[in-house]
Amino acid sequence: MKFGILVNEGPYQHQAADTALNFTKAALQKGHEIERVFFYHDGVNNGTRLTTPPQDDRNIVKLWGELAKEHDLDLVVCVAAAQRRGIVDQDEAKRHGKNADNIADGFRISGLGQLIEMGIKSDRLMVFGD
Amino acid sequence: MKFGILVNEGPYQHQAADTALNFTKAALQKGHEIERVFFYHDGVNNGTRLTTPPQDDRNIVKLWGELAKEHDLDLVVCVAAAQRRGIVDQDEAKRHGKNADNIADGFRISGLGQLIEMGIKSDRLMVFGD
Amino acid sequence: MGNGAKKFMYVNRRAPYGTIYALEGLEVVLIGAAFDQDVSMAFVDDGVFQLKKGQDTGESNMKNFSPTYHALGDYEVTKLYVDRESLGERGLSQDDLMELTYEDEDDDYKEKPSIRIVDRKELMKLMEEQDVILNF
Amino acid sequence: MGNGAKKFMYVNRRAPYGTIYALEGLEVVLIGAAFDQDVSMAFVDDGVFQLKKGQDTGESNMKNFSPTYHALGDYEVTKLYVDRESLGERGLSQDDLMELTYEDEDDDYKEKPSIRIVDRKELMKLMEEQDVILNF
Amino acid sequence: MLHTINKSPFEKNSLGTCLRLAKPGSDILLIEDGVYSVIKGSAMESKVREATKEHTVYALGPDLKARGIEENRLIEGVKVVGYDGFVELAADNDRVQSWL
Amino acid sequence: MLHTINKSPFEKNSLGTCLRLAKPGSDILLIEDGVYSVIKGSAMESKVREATKEHTVYALGPDLKARGIEENRLIEGVKVVGYDGFVELAADNDRVQSWL
Fold it and tell me: Buried (b) or exposed (e) across B40-70, using 16+ Cβ within 10 A?
């Protein structure tokens, strides 16, 4: 079965990202497919490589990246939500005249259409938020 | 009278940053002093220069920066909260081996002690959050 | 609507302005309208406040996105279900809501209201008919 | 405590783990302890869940920060007020809470409990005595 | 003491806790989604009406306007202030508690 | 249909709305702070007990453990599942609604 995963809050402030990660891992372990993980609202903050959480705590951005690498997951950060919140890749940085980017490995920035497409292509859409 | 302002949520997702901005402006207009504006929890996301909000919407990061410049405000981003969420200046970037920084003009990163000090030195401490 | 169209329902339970969910939720609905699916919106709990007439953000310096609801009809988003109980609990009635309409192409482009006040049982049934439910 | 010490109260109304406010609020209290002010904490509404015994985050992969409450006594944070009504409403009693203590240096370093269950009127009075109230 | 509440009373319990713990005679200012508390004819009316007897209850005008709540819809006794009034209330009271 | 609730019922109204709109026979899974709904002897007990008659009510074990809620404190009839059980519930039901 194909799951689509929507993450609407940033890491740490709310448990949503943790729950989404744990659900995604469990689904993969049970042999299900993950159509895509889409990050919306403050969820886009899951995709910054500039975090340095305390060493005795989980590194949520890194956990997403590792999971994506291992299972070839499509981690998509919504471009409109990302612009509001300052998550940019090299292209976005150039486009908006920013002198730095902060997207993390394994994430890509794309449009809201990818969320709708995920809803169409998935058997179940799971929303994790506040 | 001296006000201390604590902002606990990022821009846009919650109204807290807007209310804090409007309160701060009104206090300055009435001749009060602002001891400091301290950004904690997701509030640290007010301090990224990488945002590009839609042109017909307010640019909260820029509004803070302009207000700070005009009134010589001390805008302090909590270092511990910022590390969790990926807000870094040049020093922090170097310290944690990051190849980019994203702090906005007019903001500085410092410790939680600055929040307590703000509480001690202010006549009133205002908390804006979710 | 295509044959393989899915039924998407956007459930709005949050007030506007205090949080961004209403505004960014609306952006999803507008983009989603291009995908030729069967789309509806439900307004429950504080979500009914999104449709309140007369919103004016001039003094609070936020973006007034309420005019966008008027554009929904042009995007063929024509089914807006409002929970009757949520309205009443909040001291509101249908007169308090924006008048949202669409032109029915199957009925000589007559202008028809998009908003339908529904009771608990109808809403329950509608939700059970969906393929995808997105909560904002 | 210095003469110009201010009275700081940290009011905790949020459950742990679902949001970060409890954890980061505690970090403020620990840093604040170095500033030689008169510090107290209040636990109201879901904040009382922060003090629940037996927290174990192993399976959810979050950081278990509940042991930190035991360190409060060493930082001379010794006044933890728990709202009785909030406890009862949630099906909890004092036995459910961690046993937090401090050594009273004014009383031959006797170990004393830090937690005091208070009723509404006491809490109201305590809040009115503060100089600074921080809500997490 | 000034109490501020920024949550809709239909969504969160902040108003209830504030009213339980605020000393009689306190100032209570409703801001952001908190302004939804003061609509006449809502399920909150009796609670807020009761509160106006013990406290002075204010609502932030700019937040009422943003949400399309006209002043004639307000429960009697509720006063409307702007951001400057918010600053005055904060300055005139000895301390401020934000019921988030 | 699977309904998930991630909010404490003492803080937010999500549980109430879910119970009002969930069709009898639905599965309801409490996660994150939602697990505080199932403590025996709380003010929520009668509401949740009532819900177990019309629905199957689950609570996420890892979230109960994180919060120190032992299984013997749970209202009778509430079932505990892990993340794999969460996945199964999502797969076995035709659709999922997250009451945020």
Answer: bbbbbbbbbbbbbbeeeebbbbebbbebbee
- Are the CB atoms for A92 and A101 separated by under 8 Å? yes
pLDDT digits 0-9 by tens, B58-74: 999 999 999 999 999 99
Choose, from B6, B20, B78, B87, the residue flagged as catalytic.
B78
Where in chain C are the domains? Answer: 7-135
CATH code for the part of the protein at C7-135: 3.40.1260.10
- Sequence-distant (6+) residues with CB within 8 A of B70 are none
Who contacts E34 (Cβ-Cβ below 8 Å, separation ≥6)? Answer: E4, E5, E6, E7, E8, E9, E14, E15, E59, E63
Does the CA dihedral A35-A40-A43-A46 come out positive or negative? positive
Answer whether A84's CB lies under 8 Å from A45's CB. no
SS3 B66: helix
Segment D42-90, tens digit of pLDDT: 999 999 999 999 999 999 999 999 999 999 999 999 999 999 999 999 9
Q: Is A100 a catalytic residue?
A: no
Residue C61 touches chain B, beta carbons under 8 Å: yes
Of F86, F80, F87, F27, the residue nearest F51 (C-alpha): F27
- Measured between alpha carbons, how far is residue D8 from residues B120, E50, E75 in Å? 9, 31, 35
Strand partners, C101: C113
pTM for the full predicted model:
0.98
For the purposes of burial, counting CB atoms within 10 Å of the CB of F52, is it exposed (0-12), middle (13-18) or buried (19 or more)? middle
Full domain range(s) for residue A32:
2-128
Q: Residue A51: which CATH number?
A: 3.40.1260.10
- What is F2-99's CATH number? 3.40.1260.10
| Interface ipTM | 0.97
Backbone phi and psi for residue B57, each to the nearest 5 degrees, phi listed first: -120, 165
In chain D, residues with a C-beta closer than 8 Å to the C-beta of B120 are 6, 35, 37, 132
What are the structure tokens assigned to A19, written together? Answer: 């729950």
**Which chain C residue is nearest to residue B63, measuring alpha carbons?**
C61
